[in-house]
């Protein structure tokens, strides 16, 4: 009968849990809280050998309910979490971390810092791999908060430094904050992961103290280490760093070229193509055309005037100079079977004309050159433009008519 | 299209998942995940840094407008046959075990299904041999005669053995009865029309298929419901595309007016297809809707022109050799679709240029998985398609599919997956953000950005009981959250999630979950709001409303300041239910009204909804009553033994009917009333049993008396002595007692007792003993004089009832049934007419208990008395 008792107990536990779940999913937090008080009993006779024991569920559910209950105060929340921390040793660090997140989101930075320091000093037996990761995160977040206090003190010093009045203790505190932050941040960004926030702060610290080499190396590592995920931001940070420090065009281009290879639709590609277009080298200008065509392949750029005017400008330049028409031909060859339907349909001509005249102007120019003067998009837009007696549309019509042979050559 | 300037921190490692898996009941609650500085920007860092959580931010408030889902369309006219339930195909002992997908803890009841086949299709199972051999199978209960025994098998004995075997099921030490083993050994090879091994293989395969479908049916992934939104903003008429008909093979395009309760307008455009519709997908390109429809071996595409009321036009159909598992419509280019088949091929299908093979690989991508399910969808680049199997997603460039591809999602440590986690449904979230992707697994839901492959930008454990097979996106804009609706099939669960993409609060930010997830009404939930039903109708409704969901569609509708969300859910029975949620636009500054109980559990449906329920029920029942009734009562087909002419009974009412009519007339004339229709009721009510007459005490008293007086031994001698004379005496004694008893007992009981006597006599005669003089008159005439008021009792049936007529030797002869088969036939029918066989060797004293009124009907007992007559002449 003890077995039966266990079974019954488990059953009623499950039923109770399903009631809680149901109430929570219908946002009936009060009802869920009432059920949770019954569920707490399951802690007493915890026979389960499941992955997620009742103590973890109580922590999770209780936290969620307290976050949504209107009248619950921060004090109650802290009290609940402190109890939860003692409930499961394996989960201690995780609960601490989540508690810190909650404090941070509620603007209680100092309390969060205290909690982080406390958690950092916690030791219990052999650490598992997961606990190791959690500990590193705790240290990193403490480093981040140290960075923020460093940044605060730095601003105070900068303001007062202008007055000529320098408080030594503030300066000392600032340096100690720097050291604490640097140590912890440096640790975490060595491990493969997405550490945008930490990398940015660490680089800021290094740059302030003039350690450009170290900063460059950190950013290089973050962008190019193959054990890290292909994070576009890593390349963006590197590019911005290089730009800040006046690095030569060549290294900027090579940084952006790699970004282009991994994310052809990145917003920096507009800068990239403009930069390439200004170059004197043919190869780079060729790459510039490739980049802007690739950008416009993506649905997200479909109605971007900036991108279309970039392409229109480049195409126009090539057509006028009548050199390198083969570049357009090459780019167009792999697109001519789907760009007309994707960009230059009659429906889009109508809609673009209604919504954005300058977009339809740029697109009509490109369409007129790539598809000839009989193309639906060009015909509609130029017709509407001439009807509305807008001067640039008349010019556009003239230009396309004059250069119609180009279309024959590239198609 | 801008990439968020900073992402939430996360670890990244490669390799197979390390975390041990399993559904965790509360895994989705209480975590913020990570935080990110999401304040007004780095310039204003002097103030406190502001942090935003990855999960746990505030979301929009959507409140259900009604207490339950309401039927959107009248129920389909076709009769719906529920798909098999676990108890239909599982071995009964394992039914209570927990059914866990992937693990085979259940035992399929193979033998039962094979048995069903033999019973339901005997002609297909053993037609030829059965016809050849049926005279060698004896169905009677009595022993076989010497010459017949050599060529005839007594089936009842075999049946007994089988029953005994059945009773011993679950016992470890069961061994087959030798007779059964001998029988099966003898005829296993030739008795069956289809070779038994082959049949068993096929059945087993089918059972396994049914079972795996029951655990998880992925053929309906994506859902068979689509919504074509109103053309111009402000219009209230959209179009619902849904399957219907008896086999779900009709495609309907139904105009729907989006009022408080959406209702159909006009009659739908209808197309009949040649297979069950598994999936309906739709996308709007250049102001036109393209609708892709997938059945197992055919995929078709329809175009619905932009003009209002324009008729949908079928464009093209393709046929696949292997069932297709996916069909998605391109949101970028008109008339372009992606098709996958279960053999691992992925095609880009353009209505104008035809099919282009992108991939042909029966193996899964990242690790070995047995599932042949494949999926494909479009991405931000119109020439790049995603391609998924259970292990992950890859993106292929259609211009060079072999060379240009990258991994978008892997079930592994990269995304922090659990062991055993599998991709269930990928979906392109292009309408929310051009480079975002949704991937659901049985445990979690992931949002991916194709610019940062492998690392999910959002992950959340959805805690649904069944894997989400359907998903719907309702995109928000820069200020509003994106809404994702997940739907499961068997449990009908619906879960509404919200997430904020980029460009929130004026500046771009990484993806965050917004608000708590919310459960919506399921179809089955409306059962308790329906008017009370009769039990059988309640059961019917329960079954109908509980049918697995087959599709899901949701749309946002703006009506001035009010905004509402309409969710349509399709069930496998073809019913479409809908529910409305209203948006509480005002975000109060204080978090006071953020939380509380938006819906009281006991809310009642609005009058309009109640009316809708009533109408729906009326139509449903009308459809149900029309259907032909199949009497499935266990009956014996006699068609193969006799021709129809043989079975024709005498024309006109039977004696019994005539008598009952007469009686009814009489009672009406007298102005009396009928208390009970049973003819037996005509007799005076049974008197309380008078004490046994002195001369014949019951056996127990005799025995006790004997024991008391000390001559118990002698009593035993008398009892156990085997002399025939004694037994005959005992029998006669019993008959006397019975005769006495009959005077106060029912008529039918007397028949039974006389029958017992007769059969016992014949048993004795079988044993080679001289027959007791059979000079007794026919049984019925032995009766004591019945009450005169009764017109029924006492007089034998004037003309025999059909069965009797059939059994009489003469009638059998005149119907041309050969003499040697008449006995078999009689015995055979007697098996069905008789109750449980009487124990032949009961001591005489016990047989008296058989005099209690038996449950046999008047007719069958009468027929038995008739069948005795020829036997007496043996």
Q: What's a concise summary of this model?
A:
With 411 residues, chain A is mostly helical. Chain A has 22 helices and one strand.
Structure commentary:
The complex is a heterodimer of chains A (411) and B (874). Chain A has 411 residues and is mainly alpha-helical. Chain A has a domain at 304-410. Chain A is 76% helix and 0% strand. Chain A has helices at 2-25, 29-39, 54-68, 74-87, 92-105, 109-120, 129-163, 168-188, 196-208, 212-224, 232-244, 249-262, 268-278, 282-296, 305-321, 325-333, 339-343, 346-355, 357-371, 376-387, 391-402, 404-410; one strand spanning 193-194. In chain A, helix 19 (357-371) packs across helix 22 (404-410). Chain A is extended and about 90 Å long. Chain A starts with a helix and ends with a helix. Chain B has a domain at 86-95 and 105-212 and 636-669. Helix content of chain B is 26%, strand content 23%. In chain B, a hairpin with a 5-residue loop joins strand 20 (375-378) and strand 21 (384-389). In chain B, helix 14 runs antiparallel to helix 15. The model of chain B is unreliable at 40-46, 94-103, 588-601, 679-688, 743-806 and 835-874 (pLDDT under 50). Classes of the chains: A mainly alpha (411), B alpha+beta (874). Strand 1 (193-194) of chain A pairs antiparallel with strand 1 (10-11) of chain B, so a sheet runs across the interface.
Distinctive features:
A: 411 residues; mainly alpha; 22 helices; B: 874 residues; alpha+beta; five-stranded antiparallel β-sheet; TAF1A polymerase (chain A)
């Amino acid at each position: 009968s003890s077995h039966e008792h266990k079974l019954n107990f488990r059953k009623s536990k499950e039923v109770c849990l399903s009631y809680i779940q149901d109430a929570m999913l219908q946002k009936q937090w009060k009802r869920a809280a009432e059920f949770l008080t019954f569920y707490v009993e399951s802690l007493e006779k915890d026979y389960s050998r499941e992955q997620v024991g009742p103590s973890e569920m109580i922590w999770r559910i209780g936290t969620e309910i307290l976050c949504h209950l209107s009248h619950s105060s921060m004090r109650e929340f802290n009290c609940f979490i402190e109890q939860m921390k003692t409930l499961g040793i394996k989960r201690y660090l995780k609960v601490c971390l989540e508690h810190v997140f909650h404090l941070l989101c509620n603007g209680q930075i100092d309390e969060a810092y205290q909690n982080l320091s406390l958690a950092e000093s916690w030791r219990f037996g052999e650490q598992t791999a997961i606990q190791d990761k959690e500990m590193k995160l705790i240290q990193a977040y403490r480093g981040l908060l140290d960075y923020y206090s460093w940044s605060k003190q730095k601003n105070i010093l900068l303001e007062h430094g202008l007055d000529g009045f320098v408080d030594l203790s503030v300066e000392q505190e600032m340096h100690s904050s720097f050291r604490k932050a640097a140590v912890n941040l440096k640790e975490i960004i060595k491990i493969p992961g997405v550490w945008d926030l930490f990398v940015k702060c660490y680089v800021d610290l290094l740059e302030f103290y003039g350690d450009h080499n170290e900063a460059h190396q950190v950013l290089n590592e973050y962008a190019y280490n193959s054990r890290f995920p292909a994070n576009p931001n890593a390349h963006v940070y590197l590019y911005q760093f290089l730009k800040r420090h006046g690095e030569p065009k060549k290294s900027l281009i090579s940084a952006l070229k790699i970004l282009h290879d991994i994310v052809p639709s990145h917003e920096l590609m507009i800068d990239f193509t403009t930069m390439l277009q200004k170059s004197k080298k043919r190869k780079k200008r060729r790459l510039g055309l490739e980049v802007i065509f690739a950008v416009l392949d993506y649905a997200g750029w479909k109605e971007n005037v900036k991108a279309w005017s970039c392409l229109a400008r480049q195409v126009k330049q090539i057509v006028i100079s009548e050199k390198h028409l083969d570049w357009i031909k090459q780019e167009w060859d792999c697109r001519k079977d789907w760009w007309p339907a994707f960009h230059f349909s009659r429906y889009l001509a109508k809609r673009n004309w209604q919504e954005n005249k300058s977009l339809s102007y740029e697109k009509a120019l490109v369409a007129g050159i790539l598809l000839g003067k009989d193309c639906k998009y060009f015909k509609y837009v130029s017709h509407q433009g001439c009807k509305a007696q807008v001067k640039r549309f008349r010019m556009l019509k003239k230009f396309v008519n004059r250069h119609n042979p180009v279309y024959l050559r590239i198609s | 299209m801008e990439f968020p300037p900073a992402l939430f921190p996360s670890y990244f490692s490669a390799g197979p998942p390390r975390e041990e898996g399993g559904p965790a009941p509360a895994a989705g609650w209480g975590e913020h995940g990570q935080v990110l500085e999401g304040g007004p920007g780095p310039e204003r860092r002097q103030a406190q840094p502001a942090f935003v959580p990855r999960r746990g931010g505030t979301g929009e408030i959507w409140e259900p407008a009604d207490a339950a889902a309401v039927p959107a369309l009248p129920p389909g006219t076709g009769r719906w046959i529920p798909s098999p339930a676990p108890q239909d195909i599982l071995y009964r002992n394992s039914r209570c075990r927990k059914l866990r997908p992937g693990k085979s803890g259940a035992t399929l009841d193979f033998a039962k299904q094979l048995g069903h086949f033999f019973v339901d299709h005997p002609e297909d199972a053993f037609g030829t041999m059965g016809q050849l051999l049926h005279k060698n199978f004896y169905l009677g209960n009595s022993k076989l005669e010497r010459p017949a025994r050599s060529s005839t098998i007594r089936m009842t004995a075999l049946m007994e053995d089988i029953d005994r075997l059945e009773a011993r099921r679950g016992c470890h030490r069961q061994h087959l009865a030798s007779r059964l083993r001998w029988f099966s050994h003898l005829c296993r090879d030739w008795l069956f029309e289809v070779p038994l091994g082959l049949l068993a293989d096929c059945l087993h395969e089918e059972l396994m298929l049914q079972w795996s479908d029951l655990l998880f049916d992925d053929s309906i992934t994506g859902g068979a419901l689509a919504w074509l939104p109103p053309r111009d903003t402000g219009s209230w008429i959209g179009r619902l595309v849904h399957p219907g008909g008896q086999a779900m093979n009709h495609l309907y395009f139904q105009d729907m007016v989006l009022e408080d309760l959406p209702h159909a307008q006009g009659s739908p455009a209808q197309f009949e297809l040649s297979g069950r519709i598994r999936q309906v997908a739709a996308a709007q390109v250049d102001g036109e809707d393209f609708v892709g429809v997938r059945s197992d071996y055919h995929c078709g595409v329809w175009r619905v022109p932009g003009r209002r009321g324009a008729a949908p036009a079928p464009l093209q159909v393709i046929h696949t050799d292997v069932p297709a598992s996916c069909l998605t419509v391109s949101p970028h280019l008109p008339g372009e679709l992606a098709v996958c088949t279960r053999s691992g091929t992925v095609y880009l299908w353009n209505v104008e240029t035809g099919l282009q093979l992108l991939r042909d690989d029966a193996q899964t991508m990242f690790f070995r998985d047995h599932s042949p399910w494949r999926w494909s969808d479009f991405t931000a680049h119109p020439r790049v398609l995603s391609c998924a199997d259970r292990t992950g997603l890859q993106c292929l460039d259609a211009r060079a599919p072999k060379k240009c591809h990258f991994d978008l999602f892997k079930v592994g440590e990269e995304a922090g997956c659990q062991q055993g986690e599998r991709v269930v449904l990928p979906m392109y979230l292009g309408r929310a953000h051009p480079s975002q992707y949704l991937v659901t697994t049985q445990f979690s839901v992931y949002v991916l950005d194709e610019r940062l492959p492998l690392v999910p930008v959002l992950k959340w454990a959805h805690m649904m009981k069944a894997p989400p097979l359907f998903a719907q996106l309702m995109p928000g804009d820069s200020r509003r959250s994106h809404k994702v609706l997940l739907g499961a099939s068997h449990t009908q669960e619906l879960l509404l999630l919200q997430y904020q993409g980029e460009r929130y609060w004026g500046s771009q930010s990484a993806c965050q979950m917004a608000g708590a997830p919310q459960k919506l009404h399921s179809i089955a939930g409306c059962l308790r709001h329906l008017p009370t039903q009769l039990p059988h109708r309640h059961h019917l409704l329960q079954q109908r409303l509980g049918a697995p969901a087959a599709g899901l569609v949701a749309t946002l509708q703006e009506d001035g300041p009010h905004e509402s969300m309409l969710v349509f859910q399709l069930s496998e029975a073809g019913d479409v239910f809908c529910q409305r949620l209203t948006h509480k636009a005002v975000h109060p500054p204080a978090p006071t009204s953020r939380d509380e109980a938006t819906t009281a559990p006991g809310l009642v449906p609005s009058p309009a909804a109640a009316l809708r329920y009533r109408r729906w029920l009326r139509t449903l029942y009308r459809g149900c009553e029309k259907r032909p009734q199949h009497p499935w009562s266990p009956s014996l087909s006699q068609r193969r033994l006799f021709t129809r002419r043989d079975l024709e009974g005498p024309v006109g009412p039977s004696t019994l009917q005539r008598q009952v009519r007469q009686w009814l007339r009489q009672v009406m004339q007298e102005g009396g009333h009928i208390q009970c229709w049973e003819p037996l009721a005509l007799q005076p009510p049974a008197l309380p049993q008078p004490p046994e007459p002195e001369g014949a005490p019951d056996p127990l008293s005799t025995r006790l008396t004997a024991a008391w007086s000390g001559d118990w031994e002698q009593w035993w001698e008398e009892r156990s002595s085997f002399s025939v004379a004694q037994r005959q005496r005992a029998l006669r004694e019993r008959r006397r007692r019975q005769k006495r008893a009959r005077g106060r007992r029912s008529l039918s009981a007397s028949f039974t007792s006389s029958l017992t006597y007769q059969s016992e006599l014949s048993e004795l005669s079988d044993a080679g003993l001289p027959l007791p003089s059979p000079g007794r008159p026919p049984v019925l005439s032995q009766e004591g004089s019945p009450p005169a008021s009764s017109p029924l009792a006492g007089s034998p049936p004037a003309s025999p009832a059909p069965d009797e007529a059939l059994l009489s030797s003469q009638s059998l002869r005149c119907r041309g049934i050969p003499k040697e088969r008449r006995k078999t036939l009689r015995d055979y029918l007697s098996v069905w007419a008789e109750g449980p066989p009487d124990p032949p060797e009961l001591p005489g004293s016990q047989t008296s208990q058989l005099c209690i009124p038996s449950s046999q009907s008047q007719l069958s007992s009468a027929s038995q008395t008739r069948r005795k007559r020829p036997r007496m002449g043996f």
